[in-house]
Automatic annotation (TrEMBL):
UniProt name for this protein: Reverse transcriptase domain-containing protein
Xref: InterPro entries: DNA/RNA_pol_sf, RT_dom
Database matches in SUPFAM superfamilies: DNA/RNA polymerases (SSF56672)
Record-annotated Reverse transcriptase domain positions: 248-522
Pfam families documented for this protein: RVT_1 (PF00078)
Length: 1015
């Protein structure tokens, strides 16, 4: 309904009228706001009912008229009465079928827009069929089973009411004094005055509009039934009212009770028993206005978390990732094995961690970190007596209150949880009885991703009792509870006697060979890690690809499926486990991908070409080998950071025995890194030295060559000399005087001339650099990757940026470029090819149009002359004219039977767009059009060309040539798709202007004339 501009205008007027009439200081803002929802729902229902009533009345009138005419014709038998009867029947039939036709047309356009492209539609096609969501039978609290709908419905609120009301008696929870005493020693980081002011500031219109723009479409609304689309459509009217509402809440006024209500939808977890309420995952649907305020607060709070939360916690903190935790554990395993130091990994399972957070504890933490009154007012308003109802089998349960837990579906929820967990992590770090693994500069006891905790224990006899006590104490004040039966431990280097004692004393599950943590399998050796993760996922990929082969996916859709589904899983593994992966893995993966892309024959485009960027003639097929290298290159940038707080860097520095920032730039033979298993440091260095010259990332000797911590300069650099050469603690070759021959000593300084010792030290440096025979390389400018390392700043999309850098080093061109040169007897410059592929991939949003255009450019289609070379028994003549050799250019362009086809299309394009295209294959087949993409996107010219080319493959190996009738119908299909896309993007007016002249053409005699004379 919100796509109807007339209806939107009516509702907007209704909203403005309502707010004007109810603008009274006597009415609380939250009440006015909640009342407006009832008004707008009523208005929408009223309009929908009126439309339905009008349509029903029209149908009934037609039925009455038809009945009267039937009786009249039965009596009179006049032709005029029969014609009227036929006309009325047709009118009724059209009216009844209009909705069906519109839905079919919309579905067709929807598929044309979204099929075979990364997105929800392709994800649904690839997804395994899910079990029916209907709950047929449930286990009741007394242990019996029931299939009665009321028993099933009531079982869920009974379970969630107990979960969300842990302290059912007022005296059962911890006292305020107890919580304050616990937090007095465990909250050590607080907000600065500037941070407090930022959190307390009134919500601005810019903040609100930014959140509204980023609201996801198509999401289920909360109990009020108003989705994100409603707030986006009426943002100009609603924004001032929302700002006023949030300002009122900031001053301490509460939300209306209905605003805080939620609907809980339940979905059975994969592989779980469907009769147990605990097997269902609750999905909380909050009202959109509540989520808008929470998102504004989350956007403010998120950048402050790194200063409030220790780097041990990597979950939901900006700048930290899951790979930071897994890489850290990998380094710990390698270091413990190399030092032969006992190490045990303990992974704890928290029972409903987010749902069990006590609000009294959460607010005490927020106050302890120094949150301002206004920020606390907003948070308190979000948690002021919320309610929920469970939806199961299409029915809603009775309403129940929520008294604990961070709210599901709320953007603030993970941030608040991380803050409430930080006191526990601080306690663990400060507890001297918990023994962790020593790195280069600090001790490592625990790694956390939200509620997923992994303990690094070197002395279990003292550490495990201390950990148990710490968790129990924290649980008493916060509600946190560990499920001991589901918690696991993995032995890395402890003796078996110690393991037997632990298994006897604790109920934790013992993992004999491997343990899963954050989606990857941890094991004591590289061999086991490879088998459990990389080669295991290879088997999973093969299974998935085999299953997808039976799905209705086009050639381009198969490549999109690999990008959307397989690539993220692969990238996560590369980042989480930076170890040496053998070439056999990549070879096997490439073979599996090729079989999926080309399921029925030999590849028609090489794998290397498909992996190229789209603007360079490829289809951006993921090159797993380069992505693997890119993930290791991001580590080199992390190594180079001067003030990074990533905890894994400390362990890897201990593994290497050298400062990490020096390792990539030291000559390979000048130092020796002690080997470990697993050994992420050596893996990254091996890949770096193997490929740095191949991809032009650096030279054999780089200007970033370190002079401090350099094994070839055992005497080091005197501090007095270093401070003359650089202001920082690091001294590199690039910091020396700009004279490449190092003939000029740094004597010009306010401190006066160099001392004899400093002069001698400088001569040592000079002698060392000359011995490297590096020549020009030390005085040159830094290469792009070297600049990234010198900056030492983590990239926002690091792997993608470095992958693009590696691809740019590949200067080869697709083989079909030269083939077109031979076909056309010209040399096509590179900028023309770039234009071709930009228009192919950006000229239309429909994947099938892009696919056909790319296939034409890449010689995907097999011409008669080509088939004759492969199969000599087949004819080489054109199947259309049977006169000349069927070369690629002949089939597509120069066949006599196509001459009038291309000529008429050129003429109609001129009539519709006033653009006189040259009648050449370069223009019509390779899209060498003398207009910019911006101009072409506003014109129908490009879609008219796409339609003309798309018809030829539909008649492949046919004697018939495409007709103007075929072409006009195809353009009309493209028009429908384009109009739907414009409607989705809110550009309907622009699309109407774009197609205006085409519609006039199709409605005029010129269209019928063209069809008649060229069909």
């Amino acid at each position: 309904m919100l796509s109807n501009s007339v209806l939107v205008a009516e509702i907007d007027t209704c909203l403005r009228t309502f707010f004007e009439e109810n603008d009274s200081p006597d009415l609380p803002n939250p009440t006015i706001w909640e009342a407006h929802k009832a008004v707008v729902r009523g208005a929408l229902i009223s309009r929908a009912t009126a439309l339905k009533r009008t349509r029903s009345s029209l149908i009934q009138n037609l039925i009455n008229d038809i009945r009267s005419l039937e009786l009249l014709h039965h009596t009179s038998a006049l032709d005029s009465d029969y014609e009227q009867l036929t006309s009325k029947r047709k009118e009724l039939n059209d009216l009844l079928n209009s909705d069906i036709r519109f839905a079919a047309q919309k579905a067709k356009c929807h598929f044309a827009l979204l099929e075979n492209k990364p997105g929800r539609l392709l994800a649904r096609i690839l997804r395994k069929r899910q079990n029916a969501s209907y709950i047929a039978r449930i286990k009741l609290p007394d242990g019996t089973f029931s299939s009665r709908p009321d028993h099933i419905l009531n079982a869920f609120p009974h379970f969630y009411q107990n979960l969300y009301d842990m302290d059912q008696m007022p005296s059962s929870g911890p006292s305020t004094t107890t919580i304050a005493a616990y937090l007095s020693n465990t909250v050590t980081r607080t907000l600065s005055p500037a941070m407090i002011d930022l959190l307390d500031a009134p919500v601005t219109s810019d903040e609100l509009l930014s959140v509204l723009r980023n609201l996801k479409r198509g999401k289920c609304p909360g109990p009020d039934g108003l989705p994100a689309e409603y707030y986006r459509t009426f943002s100009s009217t609603l924004t001032p009212k929302l700002l006023s509402l949030f300002s009122t809440i900031r001053d301490g006024v509460k939300f209306h009770t209905h605003t805080l209500s939620a609907t809980i939808a339940v979905i059975c977890k994969p592989g779980k028993e469907g009769t147990d309420v605990r097997s269902y995952r609750p999905i909380s649907l909050l009202n959109t206005d509540l989520k808008i305020l929470a998102k504004v607060l989350a956007v403010r709070l998120a950048p402050l978390l790194p200063s409030l939360i220790h780097p041990d916690q990597v979950g939901f903190v900006p700048g930290r990732e899951a790979r930071d935790a897994t890489t850290r554990v990998l380094g710990a395993i390698g270091l413990a094995r190399r030092l032969r130091k006992g190490l045990l990994l303990l992974s704890t399972d928290a029972e409903k961690a987010f749902d069990r957070v006590r609000w009294s504890f959460m607010f005490a933490v927020l106050q302890r970190i120094g949150s301002g009154d206004c920020f606390l007012s907003w948070i308190r308003a979000l948690y002021d007596n919320p309610t929920a109802r469970v939806r199961a089998n299409g029915a809603l349960s009775a309403t129940f209150d929520i008294h604990n837990g961070t709210r599901q579906g709320c953007p603030l929820s993970p941030l608040l949880f991380s803050l409430t967990l930080e006191p526990l992590l601080t306690t663990i770090r400060n507890n001297i009885d918990i023994k962790g693994l020593d790195g280069q500069h600090s001790c490592h006891k625990i790694s956390a991703y939200a509620d997923d905790l992994l303990f690094l224990i070197t002395d279990p006899s003292t550490s495990l009792p201390a950990i148990t006590a710490v968790l129990e104490t924290y649980g008493e004040v916060s509600g946190y509870r560990i499920n001991r039966d589901k918690s696991e431990f993995l032995n890395i280097t402890l003796d078996q006697t110690a393991i037997r004692r632990i298994r006897h004393a604790y109920p934790f599950r013992y993992c004999a060979h491997q343990m899963k943590y954050l989606g990857v399998w941890l094991a004591p050796s590289t061999k086991h890690i490879l088998e459990s993760n990389f080669f295991a996922i290879l088997k999973t990929f093969r299974s998935d690809l085999s299953e997808w082969n039976g799905r209705m996916i086009s050639w381009l859709g198969r490549i999109a499926a690999l990008k959307m589904n397989l690539l993220p899983r692969l990238l996560y593994l590369f980042g989480a486990l930076p170890i040496m992966v053998p070439l056999t893995f990549f070879t096997a993966l490439r073979t599996a991908l090729l079989k999926f892309i080309w399921p029925t024959g030999r590849p028609r485009v090489s794998f290397a070409t498909l992996c190229k960027p789209k603007h360079r003639g490829g289809l951006a097929l993921p090159d797993s080998r380069r992505y693997y290298l890119s993930s290791h290159l991001t580590r080199l940038i992390d190594w180079s950071a001067e003030h990074s707080n990533k905890r894994w860097l400390d362990l890897e520095s201990a593994l290497a025995g050298y400062p990490l920032w020096t390792l990539p730039w030291l000559p390979p033979g000048s130092f020796q890194v002690a080997r470990a298993d697993p050994d992420p440091v050596s893996a990254t260095l091996r890949l770096w030295h193997k490929y740095k010259l191949t991809y032009g990332l650096s030279t054999a000797i780089s200007p970033l060559l370190p002079l401090v911590h350099n094994p070839s300069l055992p005497g080091g650099i005197r501090p007095s000399l270093r401070t003359r050469l650089t202001e920082g603690s690091r001294l590199r070759a690039i910091d020396l005087p700009s004279d490449g021959n190092l003939e000029v000593l740094p004597t010009t300084s306010p401190r006066g001339p160099l001392s004899p010792l400093d002069s001698f030290n400088f001569l040592q440096i000079k002698s060392y650099l000359r011995s490297l025979h590096s020549g020009y390389s030390l005085g040159r400018q830094l290469l792009p990757f070297e600049l990234l390392c010198q900056a030492g700043t983590s990239l926002t999309h690091g792997i993608s940026a470095l992958y693009s850098l590696l691809q740019a080093a590949d200067a080869t061109i697709p083989t079909f470029f030269s083939r077109w040169d031979r076909e056309l007897a010209i040399v096509i410059p590179e900028e023309k090819w770039t234009q071709t592929f930009v228009l192919i991939h950006k000229g239309s949003c429909a994947a099938r149009i892009q696919e056909t255009s790319y296939k034409i450019a890449a010689f995907w289609y097999r011409s008669p002359s080509f088939l004759h070379q492969v199969y000599p028994s087949t004819a080489s003549e054109c199947w259309r004219c049977e006169l000349e050799s069927g070369t690629y250019l002949h089939i597509w362009w120069s066949c006599p039977n196509l001459g009038s086809y291309w000529t008429h299309i050129r003429d109609i394009i001129l009539q519709v767009t006033d653009v006189n295209l040259p009648l050449t294959p370069e223009c019509f087949l390779l899209l060498h059009i003398p207009l910019s993409l911006k101009v072409l996107k506003r014109s129908v010219l490009l879609l008219m060309l796409f339609a003309s080319r798309a018809l030829i493959p539909t008649l492949w190996k046919s004697t018939r040539s495409p007709s103007m009738d075929d072409w006009i119908r195809r353009v009309e299909e493209y028009r429908s798709v384009d109009l739907l896309d414009a409607e989705h993007r809110g550009k309907s007016a622009d699309s109407a202007r774009k197609w205006y002249h085409w519609e006039r053409f199709t409605a005029s005699n010129r269209a019928s004339h063209a069809v008649t004379h060229t069909g």
